[in-house]
Amino acid sequence: MDIEQLLQEYERTRLAHLRILEDQKITEAKLRKSEAYNRLLFNSSPIGLALWKMDGTLVDVNPAYAKILGRTVEETLKLTYWDITPKKYEEQEKQQLKSLEETGSYGPYEKEYIHKDGHLVPVRLQGVIFEQEGERFILSSVEAITDLRRKEDELKNAYKKTIELETIINRSPAVAFLWRAAEGWPVDYVSENIALFGYTPAEFLSGTLPFAQIIYPDDLERVRKEVSHYSQTGATEFEQEYRIVTKSGEVRWVNNQTFVRCNQNNEITHYQGIVIDITEHKIAEEEVKKQKELFQKIVDYIPLMIASFDEKGKIQLVNHEIVRKLGWSLEEWQAENILEKCYPKPEDFKKALDFMINKPIGWKELKTTTKYGTVIDTIWTNILLPDGLSMGIGQDITESKRAEEEIRQTNEELRVINKIISTTASILDTKEMLDKVLIEALKIVGLEGGTVCTIEPDNTLNLVTQRESSDETICELTQKKIKVGDCLCGNCANENRPLILRDREAVLQYATREVLRGENINFHAAFPFVVKEKSVGVLCVFTRTDKKPAERSLKLLETLTAQVALAIENTKLYEEIKKHSLQLERLVSDRTAKLQYAIEELEAFSYSVSHDLRAPLRAIDGFSLALLEDYSDKLDKEGKHYLQRVRNAATEMALLIDDLLNLSRISRRELKRGNVDLSKIIISIKDKLIASEPGRIVKFTIEEDVRVEGDSNLLKIVMENLFSNAWKFTSKKKNAKIEFGILQKEGKTVYYIKDNGVGFDMRYADKLFSPFQRLHRKEDYPGTGIGLATVKRIILKHGGNIWAESEIEKGTTFYFTI
Amino acid sequence: MEEKTILLIEDNPDDIELTLRAFKKNRIVNNVVIARDGEEALEHLFGSNAVKPALVLIDLKLPKIDGLEVLRQIRSNEKTKLYPVVVLTSSTEQNDLKAAYELGTNSYIKKPVNFEAFIEAVHKLGVYWLLLNEPPME
Predict the structure, then answer these.
(1) Chain A hits for B111, Cβ within 8 Å
(2) Interface with B, mutate which of A600, A609, A612, A614 (most B CBs under 10 A)
(3) What is the pTM of this model?
(4) Cα dihedral A14, A17, A19, A22 sign
(5) A74, A255, A447, A716: which could form a disulfide with A543 (CB 3.0–4.6 Å)?
(6) Which of residues 76-135 of B touch A (CB under 8 A)?
(7) Each residue's pLDDT tens digit, A64-84
(8) Which 3 state secondary structure label does DSSP give A157?
(9) CA B83 to chain centre
(10) Is the minimum CB–CB distance between A621 and chain B shorter than 8 Å?
């Protein structure tokens, strides 16, 4: 039994109960006024009453009792208890009597009486024992359990339930009311749980607080109208929702289920109802409503196609977006199988339906046909909803597909251009490059014919390469010096923009020359190679077929030719550079040859010098000596002196030759770098110098373990020269000092050889390292004047530098770096 | 010493005369055969009247066939390969020195300009090659 039925049952019982209570009240009040109250009560009781003596003799019975036995009162009074009690109850009766003795009452319990006509009448009885004037009597009240018995039982049960329900109700949020059908709806009954609204039942029952007073003023009029409407239309029950004000002033929404109660004359006397606080529910309902509206709005306005459909794929609902995108209204969707129209191919329809029914995870791309016959790219997914429905969510991806395709195509085109440019860029021959460009251009547009011409300085076209040109055209272009503008490509070159002739008519309009008119060209597109705002050539593509290249590929050619123009420019520049560099190369090799020759000459010269220049000197010296030896008697002293001078000069010259040879040899010699112990070299030079003139006292100070990277032999020459110079120029000093050391200057290691010799005038310092330059007279300090030139050459060869500081009579310091 | 022939290969007449004077000064009285160019030298070495010199003095710079080529032929011929050969020249070029030694010269002497020094050199040369040095037996 659900709560609804329970409540109805409860209501019915309750009504009965209340009715009884009310009736009793009235009757009692009346009867109390009567003196014959007891008798009347006894006689008019619908319940059988009997007064017994303790021995079972009947003292008095009322008509109701007699009626149960099918007799009159008089007849009944002649009977004893045992006369009307069947044998089978004797034992039970004795027990009851025993109970009566002990407790003063019995029952209620059930048994049967023997009816006047002999059948057994089931009865329920109970009794009390009382004393009157010293004698004990039993008063039994008896009810016949006839056809009504069941009903009564039910009533009784219901009553029990009523009590239970009352408890339930008092604990439940449903407040039970009984209103009188009077102004303001005074309350005759209200359940305890009115406390939920802060009131007590007493406040209402006392009559001071009619129900209307707790109805929210704004709703009161409506409630009134509704009640009166229902009442007039004869409704037995109705339902309302309105607000009431709680004791604390709070406004709450309630649901009120009202049953109309009428009296026998069918006049409404009472309203009975259940008032339930539905504020929370109402709030929740409002919330749900709001959410529902929001959801609906979202579903309607979201730029996604949303449809709900059942297990079989039948569409239940579609949102605005679907209607907008696909064209069919919701009514159409529901009336026809639109899905079949969306996917006209049976295999597509099957795929779509499969997807809707099986709902694999993920998205599926489908080409969907709209009501207008267009096909759009869509992507769909399915969601299973709790109530067996599914929701399909789809998106129109036509645009993004198109954009994607656009990007893909652009990329592809860029790739093609890039490929062409990169392959042509490596071709530095213009003709070869342009031929390659033409091949690629024809591939792009998918046509068979094409030409590439360059524009000569006299503004004529020069055919570089062609495909499928007629012999006449080739002949014209190569031999007749066609002026720019006298050709299909002419204006394009003049205006520096492509000229596309899309049909034969357009071609003929531009085909001024007879040859062109006979060419049967149906499509011709010319693209200029523009360099620095000037066309330097033209690429043409054409066809004699009916093919028409895609606009896109023509655009691509435009881009390509712009790039190729740059390549042409580059090629031209390259050719110029190549020409220049060839010239330069020739010049260089020319000079190199000359230089080589000069070097060879020099070498031959050096060789000759070393070889042939010395021979005469030897002869001069040798024969001079022969003269001195063999003819000394024929020569006077002066003659001998002159011959000696001849010999000295010859020796001098031999020395010069040797030094010069050394110098030139050093210049030509390759450096052999290695680790050189300068200190060690210097010490051996020092020892040699001391040995050459043992009488001299010179103080040497030599820094130890000075090592450099360089050519050991050459550095030895340097040291020999510098130290023999120092030795030579200190020869006239008493406390001669020669020092070798290193110092750091500007982060570089500087080596120095310092003497306290005669020194020189710094004004001549720049002459110091030139060959044959002497700063001292030969008689004072002998030498060829080549030593320091040799030193400088060696130092420079090592990538170093050498310079000197000197002061006359104080000494000289040579510094060098390596 | 008399039997030992010296082959002097020298083109410069001055040098020839001075060399001979130097021999005389040093009392070297050996027979001296003079070749004035490379071709003549080869004739003296390999020709029909070939000499068997005890010492070959050779200048490098010679007309027709140069000294190094003559040296090469001497060293590559079975008959002449053991001849003592001294390069007597004005050149002090390292290339010449190296080439001469590579081709198997026994000695390399630079002719000094100073004649006294030249005489001294010839003296030493004569003493060494004609007196001290023991050539292999034929």
Answers:
(1) 614, 618
(2) A614
(3) 0.39
(4) negative
(5) A447
(6) 89-94, 111-116, 118
(7) 888 888 888 888 888 887 788
(8) helix
(9) 10
(10) yes
